């Protein structure tokens, strides 16, 4: 079930956020900008063309529904005809039309009401209802998709930022170690190759740091374009990133009955729509009955003849006899086949939905477990680095062992960051699959 939440403050908060971003850009980015996850989602929801198109599709479906409703009302038509000829249209007739007739006019109005059309009008209106409901569901799904993608891009930036911090920490560590090696080399206590070992490791770290910075800028540009905020290379994403504890796991195993799942609702709508299409094909084989009234006035512009006005009522019955064995019969057969196809697609779709939800659930469980393992590994790697540093300082181990321990600790720190951000992505994916994302009302997203 979707939990709908009011975002009445979204416009004011978004405007203030964007104003801050623009102001910082104009003043030379004197300090690093920060944008939170909530601000990112609010900006993306207002900026997304997919959401705008979803809202426009709803309006289009509403217009189509009103068009179908109009079929319940009489069809009114009016027409007029005027003729003038240089010579007489009708030659003079003695005693009847002594001057002949060179102009005439005719005006008429007709109202026709369909009494019975095999159910085609009723089914057309039902199909319009289905189309409107489908458009509303797809518009909500567009909002869900924007929230999902925004969070994915946000946590990708968090991951890159935190990885940069890891490299900066290890750069400081290697700088201190390099200074120590330089002092020892000048004192003649070590060979030069030990100094070169540290320099090689530091150069590799700086290369990775440069690559990571370029990746961050590219990801930041992608993020800025998607959520609709001004790009600045100094902008940061703000997140409470606690790497010392395992987050609480608050989710229960999902129910696979699919009640309230939007994708399941779309599958059901497709079945209903297919059944209505079959009924409409049947209606084309049935008689149609209509009644109406008409009013006609006939005369001449120069009063050569007296104007004549008459009104009458009429009824019409149409029976599509040739359709019973011709094209109409084959169209009905096609619609019945399409209905069976829709049923088969529904069963396949249900299986795929259940599989996707189950996979998302186990992905989330696994991601949560990986944090625990990564946290333990980081603690062990840091302890191992401390022991190796003590042993090296006391002459009990060589520099290679220390550098290996440093690389192991750096790798463990990076793995923990990956585990945390991966869990955030798996969490939002699970909420997306199970329709548990909190979304604002569609009306609040209109300009």
SSE layout:
Elements: E1 3-4, H1 10-26, E2 34-36, H2 37-47, H3 49-69, E3 75-84, E4 103-116, H4 120-186, H5 192-227, E5 236-238, H6 262-283, E6 288-299, E7 308-318, H7 327-393, H8 399-433, E8 438-439
Parallel strand pairs: 1-8, 2-5
Antiparallel strand pairs: 3-4, 4-6, 6-7
Biggest beta sheet summary: 4 strands, antiparallel
Spatially, the strands of the biggest sheet line up as 3-4-6-7
- Class per helix and strand makeup: alpha/beta
Counted beta strands? 8
Topology as a string of helices (H) and strands (E): EHEHHEEHHEHEEHHE
Q: Give the integer mean of the pLDDT values.
A: 86
Ends apart, CA distance between termini: 27 Å
Overall body shape: elongated
Signal peptide: 1-32
GO molecular function: efflux transmembrane transporter activity; porin activity
Family: Belongs to the outer membrane factor (OMF) (TC 1.B.17) family.
Keywords: Cell outer membrane, Membrane, Signal, Transmembrane, Transmembrane beta strand, Transport
